Amino acid sequence: MIASFASPKLQALYEPVQQFLHDHIYPNELRWLQTPFHEVEREIRALRPQAQATGAWNAALSEAEGGPGLKLTEFAQLSELLGTSPFGHLAFNCQAPDAGNIELLLQYGSTDIRERYLEPLLAGDIRSCFAMTEPAYAGSNPVRLGTTAVRAGDEYVINGHKWFTTAADGASFTIIMAVTNPEAESPYARASMILAPTDLPGFELVRNIPIMGHAGEGWHSHAEVKFNNLRVPISNLLGREGEGFKLAQERLGPGRIHHCMRWIGICERSFDMMCRRAATRELSEGRMLGEKQMVQSWIAESRAQIDASRYMVLHTALKMQEEGQRAASTEISTIKFFVADVMQRVVDRALQVHGALGITDDTILSFFYREERGARIYDGPDEVHKASLARKILKQYGLKARR
Amino acid sequence: MIASFASPKLQALYEPVQQFLHDHIYPNELRWLQTPFHEVEREIRALRPQAQATGAWNAALSEAEGGPGLKLTEFAQLSELLGTSPFGHLAFNCQAPDAGNIELLLQYGSTDIRERYLEPLLAGDIRSCFAMTEPAYAGSNPVRLGTTAVRAGDEYVINGHKWFTTAADGASFTIIMAVTNPEAESPYARASMILAPTDLPGFELVRNIPIMGHAGEGWHSHAEVKFNNLRVPISNLLGREGEGFKLAQERLGPGRIHHCMRWIGICERSFDMMCRRAATRELSEGRMLGEKQMVQSWIAESRAQIDASRYMVLHTALKMQEEGQRAASTEISTIKFFVADVMQRVVDRALQVHGALGITDDTILSFFYREERGARIYDGPDEVHKASLARKILKQYGLKARR
Amino acid sequence: MIASFASPKLQALYEPVQQFLHDHIYPNELRWLQTPFHEVEREIRALRPQAQATGAWNAALSEAEGGPGLKLTEFAQLSELLGTSPFGHLAFNCQAPDAGNIELLLQYGSTDIRERYLEPLLAGDIRSCFAMTEPAYAGSNPVRLGTTAVRAGDEYVINGHKWFTTAADGASFTIIMAVTNPEAESPYARASMILAPTDLPGFELVRNIPIMGHAGEGWHSHAEVKFNNLRVPISNLLGREGEGFKLAQERLGPGRIHHCMRWIGICERSFDMMCRRAATRELSEGRMLGEKQMVQSWIAESRAQIDASRYMVLHTALKMQEEGQRAASTEISTIKFFVADVMQRVVDRALQVHGALGITDDTILSFFYREERGARIYDGPDEVHKASLARKILKQYGLKARR
Amino acid sequence: MIASFASPKLQALYEPVQQFLHDHIYPNELRWLQTPFHEVEREIRALRPQAQATGAWNAALSEAEGGPGLKLTEFAQLSELLGTSPFGHLAFNCQAPDAGNIELLLQYGSTDIRERYLEPLLAGDIRSCFAMTEPAYAGSNPVRLGTTAVRAGDEYVINGHKWFTTAADGASFTIIMAVTNPEAESPYARASMILAPTDLPGFELVRNIPIMGHAGEGWHSHAEVKFNNLRVPISNLLGREGEGFKLAQERLGPGRIHHCMRWIGICERSFDMMCRRAATRELSEGRMLGEKQMVQSWIAESRAQIDASRYMVLHTALKMQEEGQRAASTEISTIKFFVADVMQRVVDRALQVHGALGITDDTILSFFYREERGARIYDGPDEVHKASLARKILKQYGLKARR
């Protein structure tokens, strides 16, 4: 924790959560990565009492909503800690995409929806997913959508083709981004968010997309899904028609903070492993790996880059918290590509320091290496964020740059 | 092909091999990567007549040995072509580690060994492996070995623990690097190479090491193995006692060329995919991905780096061919780290240009990304090669640099 | 200014100083760089009333000492602003090396020394220098010193050879680091700081060292100096004998903050010029330079890196301020190499965006490019700081790494 | 020399030239850099007999033209050698821009022009310049030109504003790129090359542009020039009207080879100095700089990158030589940005290894550092070459990328 960002509330939670991770998560994570997810889920659910005992259950929520009531800057630091393991957030019921969906339902769900979907979600009894990206359109331009929701009486009839619908496998419901108002002038006013249970006949889970050698399963998967005349009541609309992007935007800012801090957690875990290896691996009689200057430079550069990342993300969170998400929009673009790049470098160096061991599954590093490669792509590739940030800056210099 | 490195003999083989890859390998490779290896092996063996018809079967061997009789510079360019698919070399029976073992048996195998092991290897009927690296010692310092072979009458009794024994699973025999002369003054004169069948009781395949999420199987695996009082006749010694490193050294130079050219093949394949994607992916109405200057810079830099790599490797091969392996020793160090670095960059860029598709298994790129991360580690990490090269250079300036 | 680091006191000074720079410094700096320094000095001294009117004269000092009484975190942000021009600090009498010398004299100068040297220094009427680095020893190992000060009655007799004695040309006195206690066990307890006027016969200014094409002159120079039986009263000793490194250390921490913030000022100036150019340079009919994605990526990456640098430096300053310099020692190492690297990248990109204009002296960029290359070397090369940081970290993992 | 690119003719010249550089150039170059150019010129002209005795005078020319008759691949390697000093090419009368002008006059000059201008140029008695770049238009788009040449009777009347006219100061004539056919459909057919003596009243040398702190002088300068109703006979036209770009293109290919090889010479010189320093600089008792792994990695990476550069350039030269300039057009784009980047890295590393000494003018490195920064800008910035190369490649994939 950074002194100026610490708080008594956060400090009270931090140590118990750290202890929980050491006791229940780190010792199991390599095994869990090779175990069918429904078994992992059962084991993790069995740990719920201990997780709840730390006070950090539903860590992102206010006290009224059943969480610890952390400010964004506080939750951010907890998110870093949870991010040190692939299963950290899951154990505390604040994993993507459920955490974001919870926010949406809290704010926009009807009483009925809240009872039927939000309650069990908050209890960790069901999971959900979020269907946005489509294979036919570049993810870098989110307003191009082929999925449509057409009103027919009291129902929406939804048709479309999505992919990278994270955790769809086993989810109880999905929130779908679909075009409801194709005639709206602004492309940002054409889509809406609609909740749909996954057990309806029109919901087709085509496949879990094999990624980096694994199709994955359950929460740990990214699905291709199709909606074939999927019919849901119009009361499943979240917010109003045409507000899809507005809601997505609201979901985006804090989500970006969560993600970036999770990545920093991955960095710190990798950094710790790199140092431990460097300090203990003997190269030849009495010469340790950590005495090599190239290894030292990696350690020093990683330390600097991780610290820089954390400062940037926490200050972005602080600005969002104090001045609102809109005021922090350039910062929100910046942290995405900055931290994703740092993560890839740090993980790569840690892996290299481990030599042949690094590419095996005997450590968590090879998982980070392949699994988190997506960080530079998901949620808009880095290049799009860089270009977008530069255009915002250049606009202040009078340039009307085209996309 | 580079004009100045082309030759009629190479040109006669090149096009048929290219055709073979297009007809039989590329269309199957993604499926094969998700198929049990023994089935893949059956399919690939069934393609043997067509492979042989190209004239490139046993591509690294002389005509006397049943190959096409290519010079090193010629084979190098064929190796690049075969390297464009993970299954290219296998289809032509010139895959590692068998190709290197064939060289050893050709040169050092007794008549008996050649009949029993070399013949079926040349025919592609069996596979083999090579047991060198040990988990207990840093791979960067190959003379530190714990495996011993002690003479007991007409036999060697071998004990030891190896890992990263590529393709041990299903191999008929292994060549083992073991200490036979612990008392030799030079650490380079203590070890020997000994052939051992894998069906002896003292040979224990502990596991196929899970690497980047996959334990692999058959040829496509890296095993941890133990030798528990493994007994083989002393006639299984290759060369003389204490010559293990000398033989390894001989095996190394051409092997390095093969590997680097295979990596360049991976680069060219990735580059081609990157360009194809850039030229055809629409970002928005009429704007193509390839019009973006960042993508253009990746394409240009990749082109330059791949070409630079090829020139360096071919000139290294030329020097080995004309002046001997010893004369080319600094070049052999150089190409390892230079080309491995280029490959990682090119594959990473190609993947990024593919966006979310790039991390899926719907293209070969994610396989290259994770599978070839080992290139910077196998065979001595890059850092060791850089330091070693620098020490050789600085010696000419009068510096006696310690390791 | 970063909201969480702003303060009413700083805000009150900031705008007037900014105005002063726009009115009096920026319009003159290119001309001053090509004008003999004594004329520049005269012009800048003539601006003293206006500079004092801003309230920021002697900006680093407490109110008791005649400065504005800024906290370190506040002064740091002012230092960034002043750093946007090579003449900013000079105009406010807080330039290196005088600012550091003022600190030393304030704390360790006798009444006599304070009257004779400190008073005119605070008034901006004289300049001073600091003689530490020696050509015969690597700057990366500061305890190796050849300069000696031997007591002879009431005097020290000083002999030695220094270089990179910044601003010695025209300085009224120098502070010399010299070995007084060669027999001390710890190499850190052998040297002392001694003040010497430069008009004594034993003080020889050998030359202003030509650097990047210019020998420089006056404040803007780095001298080679020799002490030939230079005799000064023993009362010119600062602190006690053997405390030289202790004093240097105290001088180092805040000095590092000043430097790094000055570098960030250089970054912001370069960034501003890069954006202005990108927004206004036409490539062809209606196509502006800033629409090019490579330029956009440089702008975005620069923005991110500059912001990251500022957060790191300000948090380091905050830690020093609240927990003391010792507590912040790893941070002090980190910011040096991190910010120096960012500065070189940002200046290089800004220069490149200016095309041929960038290498001319028609903008300040070519000056930054060549003049600030030293940042990665002065004060210990980056590599030394990285290795030192890594050793501190690895010590926590149990490694006793040798230098 | 690379064995496969050596030749008896080249070898016969190489050693004497190397000896000449060691005897007459290296010992003087630092002094010359601080001496008025007309004095340097006098000294260098005095060395002409010794230079001619090597057989390499007018090194780029055929035997018929009074040169040694080297092939492009041979001259390239000589150019590398000459490039190790800023004065190497000048001593052998093959310096830019004269070498290119000689080519133009040889091919397109009338008998009269050849007598009046070419003869003394070949003898090294006069110098010339080439006026192309204009401050008002981005150099990256050479067809945008404001300079015009209008026929008036037997004369062209030339008006325009150029800058970066290298070596105009003291040149006897210039070749001017000017628009003669503004109505031509293709922008590539609008300009012509016209020779103009510099002693005519309409030729105004506005200033030598201060670059990296120096306005320079004589051959070592870049001028801003204006043509104010400059009148020259129409027989001063080189080639035909509208052929300006065709001629420039012809001049470009070999010129690029010369430049890139000169840069490689700079790399080799810097590399040699880096190694010498690393091998001899003591850090502490018995610990040498070259034992540090970071320095070793710089040496290794530099070795690899320089070798890669040389192979690429020589193969490009070979292709031009055997298949013509047009066939090698992508290679010619590639080497520009690849080698310029390598040069900047190698010089930067060599400088860093020299510590504080590196930024002084006591070695040649600081000159290379600042003087050669232009390499990434002159002749089209790297980004333009990268984009252009990528567009050529993508065209083969069916993309019609706009500029």
TrEMBL record, chains A, B, C, D:
Domain (Acyl-CoA dehydrogenase/oxidase N-terminal): residue spans on this chain: 9-125
Quaternary structure note: Homodimer.
GO BP terms, alphabetized: fatty acid beta-oxidation using acyl-CoA dehydrogenase
This protein's UniProt keywords: FAD, Flavoprotein, Oxidoreductase
Domain Acyl-CoA dehydrogenase/oxidase C-terminal: residue ranges: 242-393
InterPro entries linked to this entry: Acyl-CoA_dehydrogenase, Acyl-CoA_Oxase/DH_mid-dom, Acyl-CoA_Oxase/DH_mid-dom_sf, AcylCo_DH-like_C, AcylCo_DH/oxidase_C, AcylCoA_DH/ox_N, AcylCoA_DH/ox_N_sf, AcylCoA_DH/oxidase_NM_dom_sf
Gene Ontology CC terms: cytoplasm
Cofactor(s) essential for the protein: FAD
Gene3D superfamilies in alphabetical order: Acyl-CoA dehydrogenase/oxidase, N-terminal domain, Butyryl-CoA Dehydrogenase, subunit A, domain 2, Butyryl-CoA Dehydrogenase, subunit A, domain 3
Protein name, per record: Acyl-CoA dehydrogenase
